[in-house]
Amino acid sequence: MVTEEILLWIAGIIAVCCVVIFARMSYEARLHAVTSSDVLLDRLPEAFDGSRIFFISDIHKRKLSKEFMQEFKAKADLVILGGDIMEKNVPLDRVKANLEILSEIGPMYAVYGNHDLKADPEGVARLMRESGGTLLRDENVLLERDGKHICLTGIDQPRNKREGYPELPELWQSHHELCRIVVVHDPAWLRYVPDKPADLILAGHTHGGQIRLPWIGAVRLNAFYRKYDCGWFRWYQPHSKVKRPQMLISRGFGNRRVTLRLCCPAEMHLIQLKKHAAVE
Fold this sequence. Notes:
The mean pLDDT is 91. The strands form 3 sheets. The chain has a 6-stranded mixed beta sheet with strand order 1-14-2-3-4-5, covered by helices on one side. Helices cover 22% and strands 23% of the residues. The chain is of the alpha/beta class. The chain has one domain (31-275): 4-Layer Sandwich (Purple Acid Phosphatase, chain A, domain 2). The protein has helices at residues 4-29, 66-69, 92-103, 114-119, 121-130, 223-227; strands spanning 34-41, 52-56, 78-81, 108-110, 134-135, 139-145, 148-154, 180-183, 200-203, 212-213, 217-218, 231-234, 246-249, 268-275.
């Protein structure tokens, strides 16, 4: 027979476990952590070998630490924002402070996310300009290093899913063979591109599910996003112009609805581009 003392003991253990789990979830959601990766690209020009991208997505309502970010001034050549730079009810002063911190690292490019469009797209665009950044809306820019170029393409976020995505903006004929990096907020864009048209794709949106359980994974993602939840994805397309496309889906820096994460810590990224000789 279970005594009152045993029940109290069990209740105490459960309470302690709940406190520990909550503390862990709060800690994961507030991390300033950078995930470093090397990515091998067949078509990367030698001049860009070793160049580094600082990639951050889904800031939402979080504040960047200027002190923490200082060290990346000398470590990154380029800053890319994968959308959801803000959300509703976030003060523009906070967005401005975050963008100014990021712009100090290097040349800054961004795409809209769905929450930017719901909140204040004009405000985001204005603050990007004032911070010296470039907002890409179905646009290409050429990045130059020692006389060589790669193409950076920003895919605009549709205002609703029924709109779908347009075709990639055309490259000039002389640029068709360039190594191409595509930035798109929502990896659902993959549904519209059976052949992946970029050497490297950077995305966010999913938050990695934000709450993940061991052996089960994300508990609140549908089938598509459970497949494309977070991390690196690679394909082999032997008959396409881009034979080995790769994609990174970030877990994101910010949080949606609650400032809690589980088995899915907040992250930013430092990506080093490496030249990789193509093998047919």
